[in-house]
Specification:
Largest sheet: 5 strands, parallel
Distance between the termini: 12 Å
CATH superfamily: Response regulator
Number of domains: 1
Shape: globular
CATH architecture: 3-Layer(aba) Sandwich
Structural class: alpha/beta
């Protein structure tokens, strides 16, 4: 069973995404902020991270940088899920190693699942 870490501070959205992923048969780990997210990537070695950029404490860009700079976690795929839709935010995240970038307002949960499956090669 593939493990997915959802790093999202919005409880409603986090639970919505988690429920969809659980229905698809994934094991879910959750983090409410950036520090917790970085720790869980190291501890739990998820198969994929869904990462918000606007987080309490360290932001998603910093979380992404820490995941990608650590040899133990650098190969973990990361999909950014954010309200930041500016071209420079998208480019920055992709340049820092994100596999994909979804703007929350533009994607329904079912589309998020499709992206997850694509990145996981399912």
């Amino acid at each position: 069973m593939k493990k997915i870490l959802v790093v999202e501070d919005d409880k409603f959205l986090r639970e919505l995404i988690m429920q969809k992923l659980i229905k698809e048969g994934y094991e879910i780990i959750e983090a409410k902020d950036g520090e917790e997210g970085v720790g869980k990537v190291r501890e739990d070695k998820p198969d994929l991270v869904l990462l918000d950029l606007i987080l309490p404490g360290i932001d998603g860009f910093e979380v992404l940088a820490r995941i990608k700079s650590n040899p133990e976690t650098s190969n973990v795929p990361v999909i950014i899920l954010s309200n930041l839709g500016q071209k420079e935010d998208v480019e920055k995240a992709l340049n820092e190693g994100a596999n994909d970038y979804l703007v929350k307002a533009h994607f329904a949960p079912d589309e998020i699942i499709k992206k997850v499956k694509t990145v996981l090669g399912e």
